[in-house]
């Protein structure tokens, strides 16, 4: 099969599948982050021109078509979203007028809670965290009302919190009202383990105020901006991502190690020494009292890890 036929076939199939999925689940994409994928398309397209091996060339062509399809889908979605603003769709559907809005979720804090695990599962959307709370957990969700469920399990002084997005049908005609944006806040006193299972998401969270021992982020085509602190002796950060933009910042006083398993990705690790092909460490890694271990497994991605002054925590 000629690569040009493969490209157009994968492109149209991917666009069709994305629009089909849009009818059965909430897919909201932050366009401010999607535009960062355009250089990836150019890079992949260039690779298809210089690769001689037909099998490898076909694989790269298929990936290029999918990334371009996702970007085109996000562009159309962005256009429909903004065109829809200012139009009162509820005139034609009064039954849907109260289905979208704001929902708050909270779990009270107990001084006996010493270790907490938060499991956050969601599809596409925007997820931010920039402040603490006196509650154990607080989330302010914008989009379909009551679209999440919050539950907990307690064993001794350990708590498992589950914050899960409910599955549901989305009416395309009311696209101007579709939004899945969550602002969540944590209590800074317990020690936290965080497990995020997300789809095509925009994630911007500041974890520097918290004692985080283990952070696991599994996401699809996404944009991740993450600030990690050093309030515990050892922090493990694991990221499994698709075609993504990953921006991580760590404190300067902490020793940091990065292990990567990436394909066709750009890496910018300012302030790190190259130990091996996929292993990087800060110069103070051996002597630092606090250590941060980062493991990144991703596809076509832009990965950046920077260091910030510890006094700013």
Structural notes for this entry:
This protein is α/β, with parallel strands linked by helices and 313 residues long. It folds into 2 domains: 3-84; 100-312. The chain is 22% helix and 41% strand. It is built from 4 helices and 19 strands. The protein has helices spanning 3-22, 31-34, 38-50, 54-84; strands spanning 100-107, 115-121, 125-129, 137-144, 148-155, 158-165, 181-186, 191-197, 201-206, 211-218, 223-227, 234-241, 245-251, 255-262, 266-269, 272-276, 279-282, 291-298, 302-308. The strands form 2 sheets. The protein has a 10-stranded mixed β-sheet with strand order 5-6-2-8-10-12-18-14-17-16, with no helix packed on it. Helix 1 packs parallel to helix 4 (54-84) and helix 3 (38-50) packs antiparallel against helix 4 (54-84). The radius of gyration is 21 Å and the shape is flat.
Ranges with pLDDT <50 over ≥5 residues?
78-94, 168-178
Overall geometric form: flat
- Note the run of SSEs as H and E: HHHHEEEEEEEEEEEEEEEEEEE
Largest beta sheet, briefly?
Answer: 10 strands, mixed
For the termini, the CA-CA separation is 55 Å
Mean pLDDT: 79
Structural class: alpha/beta
Strand numbers in spatial order across the main sheet: 5-6-2-8-10-12-18-14-17-16
Number of helices: 4
Radius of gyration over C-alpha positions, nearest whole angstrom: 21 Å
- Total domains: 2
Helix content: 10-25%
- β-strand percent reads 35-45%
